């Protein structure tokens, strides 16, 4: 940890907000100071007032926070609302003709939806869900590419009170099956396929494979036609979206639900083998998802907001499907990839649709940076006024490139730290107020009581690294792990006796109170901003008939942040030459099939054993050193068989 801290502390540049953004931003220094003061003085009241002001309630709540079963907190429980009503219907009086979604497909096809059109689409699909037997509380899996129908499906679920769980389209049939079964979902909504980088990617095929292996809870599969590739349809179970929707009304009365009714589950990797279903509620989740679009992105009626995240991740929930719509903003959705047909694609989309606020991940910035500044220079990016980043720490070099080359040296870089579990931004700058330091996500938001503590749970101050924790509950925090309250408590609260929400990241706070995220402290990798559990990949590897044992570690990677490095013990002889190459390929494809291509190891090394202590614990820190290609200087005296290190280094 100490190496990291030192290297980060050498970053001393500070960027004040420009005069233009200072003047434009809805939240100025005075307003922000008043918010901090109010939150400090009355934490629950601060959130309660915002909930009353920002959301449309069918029935007002009388109690903001129910902590009677802490740490299972519930917000605004006796209030009633509907999330989809808050995202769509309430704008219709004043904004029915305003664009809600500007969609650009992989091949450059463009489709616009006004708020009225979005309303009608969502209502028709909500009526379809009801007709197909979906009731309040049922779980619905959405396994779709990045097209407006994914958002329409999410909003329609919210309208009828069904709990959706979006599974990223890049996950395999096996990963899909695990999630369907854990959620005991009644329906899957999918497409024949998706288009990415000029190629048609099948999706329905993976659904069929998953259903062939189990998933007995699934009664219906609704299939949207996107690519028109041939897909088999099983009579009685599978139905085309357009056929199911035929004759449905454009009107649907949204179901008013308790504010703590679950809105969605999103599966995410943790330090144990199986992904957990992070459960989010309705009112509290929407409040923070909406507010942070106002606070961090300063969204107003003239803005065109493009968040490049897929709806399969939390960022695509809070900053595509829900938050900006609750603000009544115009969003861009893009189906394709940043490098197709060439590395100017992102900048072309920004130019063509007049994007003013752009939000992406450091891995994308680093990848596009490699192509040089001449490519973005070919596009008119003058409308951009705020740039955001999320998913992993952004290195100062990428920060500067983003700020100077994409942001003309004027756009503030809003580095937002948060997680699937937190629902919305937690630590981030306000564009019109906060001086920026490249590489720091700056300060916790008002009402977010995030601190850094030592092993004993005592707050530590300047310049020492420790655990990032959150002391007080906040409205968009996860409600629990689906069906497993104990796992929720064990994972997030047990470490400090239920006193703090434990984030799983290490961080340090500098003398100005700025937070610098150092990385995960658990066995979670961050590959291109996506969370992958080392245990998950290890379980996939050992499920291969020829694998006896596996250990996975992260290796620093200049574009992806981290790459997957696997050490494998086969139950056959140590392979060599062409045989070894073939085995490496076989295992990489195996992992892609078990989890998805994002989990494919970049490197695989074979050994006759793994470095273990005499008590049988795998010494991962040694494996990390080997993965980096560095010399081993650590103490290896507790190793059972030190010769194994040489073998793994040479392999
Ligand atoms: C939103 C999202 C969460 C983990 C988190 C941390 C890392 C996210 C970051 C960041 C440094 C940032 N992370 N944003 N690290 N600076 N701005 O990414 O959610 O997929 O659940 O990942 O990502 O390690 O704990 P999720």
Automatic annotation (TrEMBL):
Acetyl-coenzyme A synthetase N-terminal domain segment(s): 33-87
EC number: 6.2.1.1
Domain AMP-binding enzyme C-terminal residues, every copy: 536-617
Domain AMP-dependent synthetase/ligase: 90-474
Annotated GO CC locations: cytosol
Catalyzed reaction equations: acetate + ATP + CoA = acetyl-CoA + AMP + diphosphate
Annotated positions binding ATP: 391-393, 415-420, 505, 520, 531
Cofactors (names): Mg(2+)
GO biological process, one term: acetyl-CoA biosynthetic process from acetate
Modification N6-acetyllysine occurs at: 617
Top-rank taxon: Bacteria
One Pfam family in the UniProt entry: ACAS_N
Keyword annotations from UniProtKB, A to Z: Acetylation, ATP-binding, Ligase, Magnesium, Metal-binding, Nucleotide-binding
Post-translational modification: Acetylated. Deacetylation by the SIR2-homolog deacetylase activates the enzyme.
Residues annotated as binding CoA: 196-199, 315, 528
GO molecular function list: acetate-CoA ligase activity; AMP binding; ATP binding; metal ion binding
Annotated Mg(2+) binding sites: 542, 544, 547
Coiled-coil parts of chain: none
Task performed by this protein: Catalyzes the conversion of acetate into acetyl-CoA (AcCoA), an essential intermediate at the junction of anabolic and catabolic pathways. AcsA undergoes a two-step reaction. In the first half reaction, AcsA combines acetate with ATP to form acetyl-adenylate (AcAMP) intermediate. In the second half reaction, it can then transfer the acetyl group from AcAMP to the sulfhydryl group of CoA, forming the product AcCoA.
Record-stated family: Belongs to the ATP-dependent AMP-binding enzyme family.
PANTHER family according to UniProt: ACETYL-COENZYME A SYNTHETASE, ACETYL-COENZYME A SYNTHETASE 1
Protein name, as recorded: Acetyl-coenzyme A synthetase
């Amino acid at each position: 940890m100490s190496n990291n801290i030192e290297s980060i502390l050498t970053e001393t540049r500070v960027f004040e907000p420009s005069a233009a953004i200072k003047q434009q931003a809805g939240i100025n220094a005075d307003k922000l100071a008043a918010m901090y003061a109010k939150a400090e003085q009355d934490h629950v009241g601060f959130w309660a007032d915002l909930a009353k002001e920002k959301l449309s309630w069918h029935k007002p709540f009388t109690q903001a926070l129910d902590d009677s079963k802490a740490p299972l907190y519930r917000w605004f429980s006796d209030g009633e609302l509907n999330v989809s009503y808050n995202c769509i219907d309430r704008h219709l009086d004043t904004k029915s003709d305003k664009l809600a979604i500007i969609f650009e497909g992989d091949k450059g096809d463009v489709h616009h939806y006004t708020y009225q059109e979005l309303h009608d689409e969502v209502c028709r699909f909500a009526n379809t869900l009801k007709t197909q037997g979906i009731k309040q509380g049922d779980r619905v899996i959405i396994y779709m590419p990045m097209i407006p129908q994914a958002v329409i499906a999410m909003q329609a679920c919210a309208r009828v009170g069904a709990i959706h769980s979006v599974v990223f389209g890049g996950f395999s049939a096996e990963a899909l099956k695990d999630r369907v079964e854990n959620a005991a979902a009644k329906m899957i909504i999918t497409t024949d396929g998706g288009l990415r980088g000029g190629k048609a990617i099948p999706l329905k095929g993976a659904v069929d494979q998953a259903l062939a292996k189990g998933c007995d809870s699934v009664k219906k599969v609704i299939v949207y036609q996107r690519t028109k590739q041939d897909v088999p349809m099983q009579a009685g179970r599978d139905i085309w979206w357009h056929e199911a929707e035929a004759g449905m009304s454009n009107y649907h009365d949204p179901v008013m639900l308790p504010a703590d009714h679950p809105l969605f589950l999103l599966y995410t990797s943790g330090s144990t083998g199986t992904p957990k279903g992070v459960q989010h509620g309705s009112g509290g989740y929407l409040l923070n998802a909406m507010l942070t679009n106002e606070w961090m992105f300063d969204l107003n009626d003239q803005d065109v907001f493009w968040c490049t995240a897929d709806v399969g991740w939390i960022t695509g929930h809070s900053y595509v499907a829900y938050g900006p719509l609750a603000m009544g903003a115009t969003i861009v959705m893009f189906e394709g990839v940043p490098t197709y047909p060439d590395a100017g694609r992102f900048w072309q989309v920004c130019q063509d649709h007049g994007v003013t606020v752009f939000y992406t991940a450091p891995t994308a910035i680093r990848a596009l940076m490699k192509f040089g500044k001449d490519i973005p220079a070919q596009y008119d990016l003058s409308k951009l006024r705020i740039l955001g980043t999320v998913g992993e720490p952004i290195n100062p070099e990428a920060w500067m490139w983003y700020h100077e080359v994409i942001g003309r040296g004027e756009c503030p870089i809003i580095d937002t730290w948060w997680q699937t579990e937190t629902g919305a931004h937690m630590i981030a700058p306000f564009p019109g107020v906060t001086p920026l330091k490249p590489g720091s996500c700056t300060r916790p938001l008002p009402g977010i009581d995030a601190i850094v503590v030592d092993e004993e749970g005592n707050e530590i101050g300047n310049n020492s690294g420790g655990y990032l924790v959150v002391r007080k509950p906040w409205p968009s925090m996860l409600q629990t792990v689906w069906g497993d309250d104990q796992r929720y408590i064990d994972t997030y609260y047990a470490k400090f006796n239920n006193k703090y929400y434990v984030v799983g990241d290490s961080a340090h706070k500098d003398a100005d109170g700025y937070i610098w995220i150092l990385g995960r402290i658990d066995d979670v990798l961050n590959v291109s901003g996506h969370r992958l559990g080392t245990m998950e990949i290890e379980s996939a590897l050992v499920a291969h008939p020829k694998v006896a044992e596996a250990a996975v570690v992260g290796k620093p990677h200049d574009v992806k942040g981290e790459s997957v490095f696997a050490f494998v013990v086969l139950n056959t002889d140590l392979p060599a030459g062409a045989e070894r190459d073939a085995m490496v390929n076989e295992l990489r494809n195996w992992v892609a099939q078990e989890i998805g291509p994002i989990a494919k190891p970049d490197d695989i090394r074979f050994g006759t054993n793994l470095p273990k202590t005499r008590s049988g614990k795998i010494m991962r820190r040694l494996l990390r050193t080997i993965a980096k290609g560095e010399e081993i200087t650590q103490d290896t005296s507790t190793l059972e068989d030190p010769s194994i290190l040489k073998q793994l280094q040479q392999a």
